[in-house]
Amino acid sequence: MTIQLTLVLLLLVVASGSLCYGFWQLQRSRTLMRMLNSYRIATNSAVQKRRMDIYEVRNRAKLLEDTVSGSASAVEKMHRVISNTTFSLVDRFSKDDEFRQSAHKARKTHDQTSKQVYHAVRTTNKAIHILADSLFITKAEKRVILKKDTRKEPPEKD
Prior knowledge:
It contains two helices and no strands.
């Protein structure tokens, strides 16, 4: 009977030791999982920040292109209003037919030239945007993507 009691006590000690070891392993695994999860969140945040930096660079370039284009359109409209007013007044108050014909030719030439100038401004703006995109924005994107993460790696525990 004492052998059975000793054996039962020995088995209880082994079972409780195994249970304690299993609980210790569970706590250690939970701690490592928390560390791993926090590292994953930090890494995802860094990746998201890089993406946002790229979007910001692209959006600034697009805003600049749109601003120049919109400004050119506004100036063109004002120019057209002023020239139409001027040529209309010349046409209305001119008493000489030769002068009126000369003013019509000048108006045609002026309108054609101004259209070409504003078209050239818009085309140049687009070309500059494409050039800036290929030279500067792409390099900025590469710099943002290739930035090394300065945070420490999660410590490895055994």
